[in-house]
Amino acid sequence: MAITGNQVSIAKEFLLKGEVVAVPTETVYGLAGNALDEKAVLLIFEIKNRPSFDPLIVHTDSLEKVKTFVSDLPEKAQRLAEHFWPGPLTLLLQKKSIVPDLVTSGLDTVAVRIPDHPLILELLRSLEFPLAAPSANPFGYISPTTAAHVNAQLGAKIPYILDGGECEIGIESTIVGFEDEDVVIYRLGGLAIDEIERVVGKVKMMPHSSSDPKAPGMLKSHYAPRKPLFLNYKEAFGESTQAESTGYLLFENFICGVPKENQRVLSRTGDMREAAHNLFAYLRELDALPVERILAERPPMKGLGLAINDRLQRASFSEEE
Ligand code: AMP
Ligand code: MG
């Protein structure tokens, strides 16, 4: 088990030694190391068992610092940054050569974000380098939204978890790139598309892909529990019901005729923010129940509902299909 605490100075000490620690953000917990130190970055990939074609997000605490490692800040990027940072928005920007190729998987853009959590902001302010930080979970599994989630899976592999409580947003950042005059959404996430469009006008959606590294966070199977997850009632059961051996992830209401302990309701009031906040924690709880499968209800496709549906879709994908 890793030492868990809320001491920014301890996290800083490990990072200065080139080690990797878990850090809280408002989206999910990150596995952080010095983004400009290739050895630390390599350690992140090893600990996560993450394929090297999947690039990392670089975190920092000010636009001035961003400009030290990106070569160009398009006008729309600047506007989005000023509007939404710190917050659940990642921008793909042209990198300077001080950013190791390992961080970007050889791409000439780097993913950048200023996260909105007091502990990681305090840590970033105290450091002279930015932090590369993917989600603090084994590659492909559900992202962690508490220090306990991190400890359960990576506790034996890292020296320290900076505990900042439950992640407020609970779902990864929205990733946005820039092509000529266009703003392109690469991954749906904690900042809803309509909010982005209010600032920069109509955006383009990047189509899903399973192997193209320019399609970030877009592997078909990702964010997945160990138990098979189904989105479609008939697919799971045919015409029969097996309520006892099924865990239910529901949007707004409990269902009758199923043991209540097998059910998790994302938001009793249908609030998308609350639903996103609970999504990964509830998936983990259902995964830990003595059930054979998980059946998830799709929330409506509005606001953060798009990102929640995206995560459920990936969680449900199996290579055998
Ligand atoms: P994670 O930190 O695990 O939420 O993953 C971050 C996501 O950002 C990954 O899915 C990456 O593929 C994506 N990403 C990071 N940098 C880039 C980049 N330069 N271009 C495209 N996608 C990126
Ligand atoms: Mg991840």
Account of the protein in words:
This protein is α/β, with parallel strands linked by helices and 321 residues long. It folds into two domains: 3-205, Alpha-Beta Complex (DHBP synthase), CATH 3.90.870; 229-315, Threonylcarbamoyl-AMP synthase, C-terminal domain (Rossmann fold, 3-Layer(aba) Sandwich). It has eleven helices and 15 strands. The protein has helices at residues 8-16, 38-48, 63-66, 75-84, 101-104, 118-125, 147-154, 193-200, 233-237, 272-288, 305-316, and strands spanning 3-5, 21-23, 30-34, 57-59, 89-94, 109-113, 131-132, 160-162, 174-179, 182-187, 204-205, 229-230, 246-250, 263-265, 293-296. The strands form three sheets. It has a nine-stranded mixed beta sheet with strand order 2-3-7-4-6-5-9-10-11, with helices on both faces. Strands 12-15-13-14 form a four-stranded parallel beta sheet. Strands 1-8 form a two-stranded parallel ribbon. α1 (8-16) crosses α6 (118-125). The longest helix is centred in the last third of the chain and has 17 residues, at 272-288. It is globular and about 60 Å long. The protein binds adenosine monophosphate and magnesium ion. Residues 134-135, 143 line the site of magnesium ion. Adenosine monophosphate binds at residues 54-57, 92, 104, 107, 109-111, 134-135, 172, 175, 186, 214, 216-217.
Secondary structure: elements and pairs:
Elements: E1 3-5, H1 8-16, E2 21-23, E3 30-34, H2 38-48, E4 57-59, H3 63-66, H4 75-84, E5 89-94, H5 101-104, E6 109-113, H6 118-125, E7 131-132, H7 147-154, E8 160-162, E9 174-179, E10 182-187, H8 193-200, E11 204-205, E12 229-230, H9 233-237, E13 246-250, E14 263-265, H10 272-288, E15 293-296, H11 305-316
The chain binds adenosine monophosphate (AMP) and magnesium ion.
